[in-house]
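Take a look at this chain, tokens included, and explain the fold to me:
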Amino acid sequence: MVDNNLVFSNILEYKYDFKVSESVVTYNQWKKEFSNYDFNNKSLDSRNDYPVIFINNFFDIIRYCDALEKRMIKEGLINDSQYIDLLNVNEWEYSCLGTKSEIEVLGDDYERLKIFGWYEANSGDKVHMVKGKRPTIFNLYDMYGNVMEWCYDEEIENKFHLLSLKEIEVLPALGGCFYDNDINCLINKYNFVGINNQYGEPVGFRLGVFNKNINRLLGNGSPRYR
């Protein structure tokens, strides 16, 4: 049974200090904030400890961040100087590997990928519960495979900054998923998924806790906190 509250791991890198959720958000965790949410694919709604996918619109994730942040501040889990947000691409990549190379982590032929993630070779062509494989360097689960993970990139951050929200059509999705081969699960092989996920891609999201007074890792700051 996965905790209904998100558990965050510390990520320390020089002057950057942030936390990342140990897993992608699950249906149970989503429903704790949005108990009556009407998913596009209702057949997946009851899979409590599975990654929440088929969110109707990316901006519902932003609303989820707002609701989660307010509750965590109220419960004393974070303070007023902190906020909840999606990771940007650079933060996601650093959280996955730290200062190591992918070959160091996965081996020359990526033969250790099966230890860390569900993908074409071992998934049985289906999504699995979170935390079913070994965590990576910062105790983060499912960074490889199972479901792709939506992130910000610099272009998206700039569009938020300019308040041009209607211009956003796609977001990068990292990590690969259960039907991808090993190469397509590597950190430099990611897809772009429409904000309405009109093709039903298995894409979820992982969250971070950031400090309003500390710059984001190699990014432009937070699209939400500007």
